[in-house]
């Protein structure tokens, strides 16, 4: 179900509204959504053809990515998780992720792989980057948490259609009619929710 957001509201108000909505989902609703998302991802040509896939661990009511990660491992795919860059503020590194990867909380309290330069995958070597988002609209515009991490990660895709293909993952309740966009926002070519696979 699409979230109702009044026209003319600020990006910050949309963030607050949608984050509150998705955090209110019950455990059973979250579990059903995760399984429905997995079913859609399993028939995605983009994911079936990809070998190196960046994902993220769930936080703040986001759609649970754990079933998807386990399926990708079983399918022989290489999975990577974002790590806050220690020297370049606002940027991400992507490290290989397996069941025995050492983890530690970052400054936002989100678990990430312990930095090991040997496990870093250059962004250009990724096939797909599955991006978290707070809200999205009918044209593929994405509203994130405001840090710009994924906008920077996907800048080459945004300007030149080069690099890994981004796919947004979201609950259905995170869709709004339209988003106020900025010049640095990266519209996504695909967004997968439990009930739809949007392509632009």
Automatic annotation (TrEMBL):
Listed cofactors: Mg(2+)
Record-level Gene Ontology MF annotations: 5-formyltetrahydrofolate cyclo-ligase activity; ATP binding; metal ion binding
UniProt-listed SUPFAM superfamilies: NagB/RpiA/CoA transferase-like
GO biological process: folic acid-containing compound biosynthetic process; tetrahydrofolate interconversion
Binding-site positions, substrate: 57, 62
Gene3D superfamilies for the chain: NagB/RpiA/CoA transferase-like
E.C. no: 6.3.3.2
Domain of life: Bacteria
Keyword Manganese: no
Alphabetical keyword list: ATP-binding, Ligase, Magnesium, Metal-binding, Nucleotide-binding
UniProt key word Secreted: no
InterPro entries on file: FTHF_cligase, FTHF_cligase-like_sf, NagB/RpiA_transferase-like
Binding site for ATP: 11-15, 142-150
Catalytic reaction list: (6S)-5-formyl-5,6,7,8-tetrahydrofolate + ATP = (6R)-5,10-methenyltetrahydrofolate + ADP + phosphate
Pfam families: 5-FTHF_cyc-lig
The family this protein is said to belong to: Belongs to the 5-formyltetrahydrofolate cyclo-ligase family.
Protein name per UniProt: 5-formyltetrahydrofolate cyclo-ligase
Lineage: Bacteria, Pseudomonadati, Pseudomonadota, Gammaproteobacteria, Vibrionales
